[in-house]
Design brief:
globular, 14 strands, 9-stranded mixed β-sheet, 428 residues, alpha/beta, 3-stranded antiparallel β-sheet
């Protein structure tokens, strides 16, 4: 059935079943201890039996601000979506807002709407506007200022779209935008040109048909990345339909899902969802992480469920000024991700969307961070630093200068992480 819900609803709201964790889960690392909750008595429909125990911080937040709800409500991802914070006025209940934040109240120049799940709101510091993850989701007056070079579609995705909802930039892969809805909106979002737009929030199946037909008609396409918006905000049946349609195309070899849901809405990673996803292997997932503060016990359980189902997990992180642009912060994040079986993949230079100047570092900062990681931690913990080139040039990797040229004998001169020079006898 092709359902067209109104804004804020979720497509195909399937009932959540008991969500027992595979017995192989054992997550005990510094910073979190994933443990299971076994609710006593009857579990109402829509609850998440077997969900991770909320952290002390989340529990206190939940009891203080949602006193009429119960633990089953808190663990229900649909309840989280329905009760999301969607305005500066609503944020006043949870945060002591500064004048810079209050300047965005009902200001029609704000580039993106506000939406924060109660779970993610529980991680925000009430009395510290400089907290990293608070700055990533709460608008400030700097968003109102547009600098030269900023654009709603800096990557020119719309000009690389042969049919609606599809971007075909690289020869063998496409970006399939199946929703414009996110459970939490990042203030630096690359797709400010399409997320939260009324005509993109909830796409009916008929609206996806041109993209399916285009992929099927182009045998060179072997890799499809599902994104949006956030694909995991869609219901299980709808996602299953999309994945099944793609799996029916013989030349589609792998499918990837780009998402931040395991970070901002970990309650969504239910047993039913994971079982459905595991039918469509090879399936990969790229998860958007920003800061070590996001590595909670809830997130640890969500990533464990996905990894235990055989879904390779990678991370995508945007380099953000005064949020994660220090080597020690990035190292803590990348090392923490490896503990969760998430392989650091991309570190993005922040895209120049309107009102993003206060988020964007100089490119040299990204090179400095890569140099501070390379050799000082596991190679697995070092992401690729890339700029998604404005104008549609695609992802361009950047590295510190380790290659120093050749000496008088034709040998390669190299610099290591300690800034020491070495020679390699390159065959002539």
């Amino acid at each position: 059935m092709d359902t067209e819900p109104t804004s804020g609803q979720v497509l195909h709201e399937d009932k959540l079943q008991a969500d027992d964790e595979p017995p192989s889960l054992s997550t005990k690392t510094k910073g979190f201890n994933a443990q299971l909750v076994k609710p006593n008595g009857h579990t109402p429909n829509g609850s998440a039996s077997g969900a991770v125990a909320p952290s002390t911080q989340s529990t206190e937040f939940f009891h203080k601000y949602f006193p009429t709800a119960n633990l089953n409500d808190w663990n229900d991802w649909r309840w989280q979506v329905r009760n999301s914070i969607k305005s500066v006025s609503a944020l006043k209940r949870f945060l002591d807002l500064t004048d810079d934040e209050l300047a965005c109240d009902e200001n029609d120049k704000v580039n993106l709407p506000i939406r924060v799940t109660p779970y993610y709101a529980s991680l925000l510091a009430r009395d510290n506007a400089d907290q990293a993850i608070r700055r990533s989701v709460v608008p400030v007056k700097e968003e109102l200022y547009i600098s030269p070079g900023e654009d709603h579609d800096p990557l020119c995705e719309e000009s690389s779209s042969p049919v609606p909802n599809l971007v075909h930039r690289y020869p063998d892969r496409v970006l399939f935008l199946i929703t414009g809805f996110c459970s939490t909106y990042c203030r630096y979002c690359t797709r400010s040109h399409m997320v939260a737009q009324d005509d993109k929030l909830h796409l009916g199946k008929s609206q996806l048909e041109p993209a399916f037909e285009y992929i099927a008609a182009n045998p060179a396409i072997r890799d499809v990345l599902l994104s949006g918006g956030d694909p995991l905000t869609l219901g299980d049946n709808y996602l299953d339909y999309v994945l099944s349609r793609l799996r029916a195309i013989p030349h589609v070899e792998i499918i990837r899902i780009g998402t931040k849901v395991p970070v901002v809405l970990p309650q969504r990673i239910t047993k039913d969802l994971v079982n459905m996803l595991s039918k469509h292997h090879p399936l990969f997932m790229s998860i958007h992480f920003t800061h070590p503060d996001e590595l909670t016990q809830e997130v640890a359980l969500a990533t464990a469920r996905l990894a235990n189902a055989g879904i390779p997990l990678g991370s995508q992180t945007v380099l953000l000024k005064s949020i994660n642009d220090e080597v020690h912060i990035m190292k803590a994040l990348m090392q923490g991700l490896l503990k969760l079986r998430v392989r650091p993949y991309y570190l993005y230079q922040c895209d120049p969307i309107p009102g993003s100047t206060h988020f964007r570092t100089q490119v040299e900062k990204g090179l400095e961070i890569i140099e501070g990681l390379r050799g000082h931690t596991s190679g697995y913990a070092v992401p690729h630093f890339v700029i998604d080139a404005p104008g549609g040039g695609g992802k361009i990797p950047l590295l510190p200068e380790y290659y120093l040229g050749r000496d008088e004998n034709g040998n390669i001169r190299l610099r290591n992480y300690e800034n020491k020079a070495f020679s390699y006898p390159d065959p002539s």
